[in-house]
Write a structure and sequence with these properties.
The complex is a heterodimer of chains A (344) and B (335).
Chain A: E1 2-6, H1 16-21, E2 25-29, H2 34-41, E3 44-45, H3 49-55, E4 58-61, H4 68-77, E5 81-85, H5 92-105, E6 109-112, H6 119-129, E7 136-146, H7 157-160, H8 162-179, E8 182-192, E9 217-226, E10 231-239, E11 246-253, E12 256-261, H9 291-305, H10 313-332, E13 336-337
Helix pairs in contact in A: 4-5, 5-10, 8-10
Chain B: E1 2-6, H1 12-21, E2 27-31, H2 43-50, E3 53-55, H3 58-63, E4 68-71, H4 78-87, E5 91-95, H5 102-115, E6 119-122, H6 129-139, E7 146-155, H7 167-170, H8 174-189, E8 194-202, E9 215-222, E10 227-231, E11 244-252, E12 255-260, E13 265-269, E14 276-280, H9 286-299, H10 307-326, E15 330-331
Parallel strand pairs in B: 1-2, 1-4, 2-3, 4-5, 5-6, 7-10
Antiparallel strand pairs in B: 7-11, 8-9, 8-15, 9-10, 11-12, 13-14
Helix pairs in contact in B: 4-5, 5-10, 8-10
The chains are: A alpha/beta (344), B alpha/beta (335).
Chain lengths: 344, 335
Amino acid sequence: MRVGLVGAGVISHNHLPHLLRLGAEVRVYSEAGAPELVAAHGGAVAVSLDELLDWAQVIDLASPTHTHYALARQALSAGRDVICEKPLARTDEQADELVELARQTGRHLYPSHVVRYFPAYARLQGAVRDGLLGDLAVLRFYRSGGFPVRSAWFADRDLSGGVVLDMMIHDLDIARWLAGEVTQVSATWTRAGDAGQPADTGQPADTGQAHDTGQPAEASHVLLTHESGAITQVSGVWGAAHLRFTTGYFVAGTGGTLQYDRAADRGFVPDLARGPAQGEAVPETDPAEDPYYLVLADFLGAIRDGTPTRVTAADGAAAVRIANAALRSARTGQPVTLVAGAAS
Amino acid sequence: MKIGIMSFAHTHAASYARLLRGEPDIEVRGADPGPHQAGEVRGAELARQLGIGYADSYAELMAWGPDAVLVTSENANHRPLVELAAKHRAHILCEKPLATTWPDGLAMVQAAREAGVLLMMAFPVRFASDFARLRAQHAAGLLGQVVSIRGTNNGKLPAERAWFADPGLAGGGAFADHVVHIADLVEALTGAEPRAVTAVSNRKLYADRTEAETGGLVMISYADGAIAAIDCSWSRPASAPTWGGLTLSVAGTLGSVDLDFFGPRARGLDAATGRPIELPYGPHHDVPMLREFTSAVAAGRQPQPDADVGLRTLAVMLAAQESARTGTTIAVRPI
């Protein structure tokens, strides 16, 4: 299978090696960093987007959020199947249009909500599906890491949607996956310090060194009410550069509770004099069961064999809708009502 | 120093009595007039078990001339007891929340002020050594500017006393029971004024035990730009080995600190049933709280947390209840 990867930033290092391992032929197009990415993992560089679209069967978008819509539209219109990093698009209308375009063209469209493939979250969903927790009542999710200063678009809320659309959308998606459609969204959002003008190197972040004195931070809390009556809290922080990537959940239902904390539930705890630097742009994963591999395997399998995927384009659009409702609520200061099941 | 305990309705009355009764120079006497819920050990019998003196009525307790009182009644009954104590010039340690309505809270603070008695709120968690460390690190600038606070105060629906599940006497459900502790910790940490509150709730857990909300999530926006979220749900199953706990995660521009106030515990398994054994250890936060109260009373200085903290945390709790009821964000009333 010929896969055209667009973008050569941090997350592309979590796409390219897995695509190659899955047996795909890969060419990479990016405004910057493609030769270095290919040198690190393999594949080939495409000199233009047109070349990539002509050559590839599948386009994998690992480009900035605000570019997803136009690129996905172009690829779908050219008859290509599309895998897209989350969020599926920056706006609700764009996401809906992509879902509709995929339907019309009969092409595959998959948003990479990779957290559904992280073992602790997959296990939770399995337990909920099997009724272990009974009727879900209260769900709580949190996620934090260093402010992504590696590329300037993250700090521009118009382009990225900030911590809500870039990071917390993972947990908003998980909450909907577990507890069903969302009818009301409210949010608080805050930012401190100067987001600065960090260099866009297209390279993995030199974590922990760049800006221990710059101190931009952004945080948000989001409350959801589900159609089922369950309630969810999602909290996110983009903070100091040295922060480890922290995620966790607590879910309570009539049948019991389940909780997970990445910092507490670790199977490998090093304490070495010459250990790796602190800070992570993406969480470290177990290579034997790497969620970034599993999500791409799921999508390429579906494209090849027509098998169902764990996450669909409609799920991606629904997550965008919830995240944008949160941004709207944070702006207006009042809860936002969603029409249940409006996900197309 | 003579200390009166006004009502044994709250389970904390017994733990305060146990801690105070052995103190030199402190004499403890309780009053807990009935009628009492069937099956609950109350009144003279509980006083006898606790080894403290007993008065048959609040009037008799006041006639004893206490220097100070602990008000540990049902939440909705704090006001008349605080007013009575103030009238008799007794300093007051009031169980949380201060009151269940805004007029009650204002009247109590007014009564204490007019009588010239000290009014302190019983928020023991802020006296934990770990919280003192957090405050010191925050004060030293190690966290930078605080942007986000996550607090959880999850427990079982209190079973030792039936009134906790009665929204009339408790002033609500999970919001009334658990929002104020974390609101107080933020108060003690940053001192920022709470501005707006949004909350959601449901009644899926313990639905057979109460008409009040058992699940509750609250967001607070502060004047300094920080935002907090509190899970105050009674989401600990009744069968759990311990009552629950309280955690706080504070994120600032220079880093974050996580606290688990009741977390440290020896863990194991019961061989007969396979059920977890959890044996929490560590100091009792009530000890330094009571010491702050009694030493302030002895010295005639205002202890902390004071009446204003009681009112501000009450305002947050009431805003949470109103927000969940109306589906809107509520401005926190200024004091």
